[in-house]
Amino acid sequence: MFWCERSLDPHCQTVPSVAIVWPRRERGTVMTTLATQIAERIHALRFEDISSAALDWTASAFVDTVGVTLAGIVEQAPGILMRVPGIAAAKGPSLILGTSRRTSALDAALVNGIAAHALDYDDVAGSLGGHPSAMLVPMLLPLAEMLGRPGREVVLAYVVGFETMCRIARGVHHHHYEKGWHPTATLGIFGTVAAASRLLGMDIERTAVALGIATSFAAGLKANFGTMTKPLHVGHAVRDGLFAALLAEGGFTANPSAFEHKQGFLDVFNGPGTYDEARILDEWYDPLECGGAGDPGLKPYPCCGSTHPSIGQAIALSRRHDLAPEKITRVIVMPHARRLPHTNNPNPRTPLAAKFSLQYCVARALANRCVKLAHFEGDAPFDPAIRALMQKIEVKPHPDMPEDWGTEVIVEVGDGVRFAARLDDYPSRGPAGDPMTHAELWSKFADCATRSLRREQLSPAFETLMDIAAVENVSDLTRLLETGVPA
C-alpha cells in the first residue's frame, strides 16, 4: 500500500471534468449529513460522463486485478480461509475466481478479496494511499453474476466506487495513514458500498444508510503488514461493504450522522481537527480520480509499493554498470522517511515479510536485475547469496528528498568506485504517469493467470476483460475464469 501527494499537483488536473451541480442544503435538516451528501454524489454520475482515460484505466484495472487474483487464489492465505468451516460452503451463483467453486456473492467477495491482495501485486492510487481495485473488482464480479448485470453497469459502479474512496481519503490524509490505519480497508470499504449500491439500484436514502453501517465495519491496522492479515483486511472489507449495502437495501438502519458524530468515524479514526469535511465533498468527478486525478497505477513488482522506487533505481544501476553482486561492498538506500516504518526490515522471516523489506527487494534488484513472483516463494527469500548481499545494505531516510516517492540508491564496489542513482519522484504506471503498455499488461496477466488457468484460457479472458464494458452478461466473462479444479 502507498500514499503520495502527486495526485494534488496541477499536472494531474488536465483530465476532462464532469459538470455536475450539487444541491444547496440548509443547516438543521437530515439532508445535511455527510453520508447523504456522499450518497447524492454516488448517484450523480452517468456512464456517458466517464472520460476515455477513465474507461481505459478501468479496463486495465479489471485485467490487472483479475490476474493477480488468479495468482493469489493458490496462495496459503485464501486456502486457509476456504478451509474454515462454513466459508463458501453453500452453493450459489458467484464464482471464486480461478476455481470451479460457486457460492454466495458475499462469500465469493470475501475469498476473491483476500486473493486479490494476497501477493501485494494489485494496483494503487496516490489519493487513497492504498489499493482501490482490490476493494471493487472482487465484489463487483460476484454481485453482477448474482444480478445478471452487463459489463457497462459494472464499469460505472467501479468508477463511482473508486471516486468515493478517494474523495473520502482526501479529507482524512495524511493523518489517517500515519496514525496506523490501513486505508485500503478503512476507506476502501466506502468505495465498495458505493459500487454495490449503484449496481443494486439503491436510492440515495438507502445508500446513505449503507455508508452509515459501513462506518462500524471499517477496520485494518498497519501493524499487520507483512502477514496474512493484511490481505484479510481487504477480503473482510470487500465482503462487509457488500453486506452493508444488502442490509440497507433490506431496511436496516444506521445513524445518519455516523461520519460527523462526535463518536463517529471521523473523530474516532482520525481525531478532532485532523480531517476536512469540505475536501471530502468538493470536486467530485471534476476530474475523475481513476482518470488520472487520483494518480492510479499498476504495480510492476509483486511487493510493497513503497519499495518500488528503490527497486527501479537499483535495477538501473546494476544494468548500467554491469554490477556483479560479489564485487559490491556497500549499498545505501535512502527513500523519503514516510516509506520506512513499514519497509525497513533487514531480516524478513517469511516470504510475505520479504515483500515489505527494502533490504531484500533491493538485493534482488541488484543481483537479478528484476523482482518477480518467484522471488517471494518457497525458500527464495533465504537464498544465501541474497542474504549475504542484504548484510551490505544500509537503509535510512534521505536528508532532503522533496517528494514522498523520491529515493537515492548508492552502490560501492571493491575498488572504491561509487555509483549513485537519484529519483525525486516516481511516476505511477497509470494515466497520470507512465502507463503500462498493452504488451506489459498482457505479460503480467499471463504470468499471474497461469497459476490457476490453463494456457488456452488466457487470451480469451484477457481480451474479454479489456473490453469489459461490452460484455452483455458478466456471467459470460466469469465462465472464462473458471477451472475444473475445486478450491
In words, what does this structure look like?
The protein has 487 residues and is of the alpha+beta class. The chain is 44% helix and 7% strand. Strands 6-5-7-8 form a 4-stranded mixed β-sheet, with helices on one face. The protein has a two-stranded antiparallel sheet with strand order 1-2. It is globular, with a radius of gyration of 22 Å. It is built from 20 helices and 8 strands. α3 runs antiparallel to α4. It has helices spanning 34-42, 52-72, 76-83, 105-117, 137-147, 151-172, 175-178, 183-186, 188-200, 204-215, 229-249, 265-270, 277-281, 308-320, 351-354, 358-368, 384-390, 438-449, 455-466, 474-478; strands at 94-95, 102-103, 124-125, 296-297, 328-335, 393-395, 407-413, 418-423. Residues 1-17 and 26-30 have low confidence and may be disordered. It folds into 2 domains: 6-297, Orthogonal Bundle (2-methylcitrate dehydratase PrpD); 305-423, 60s Ribosomal Protein L30, Chain: A.
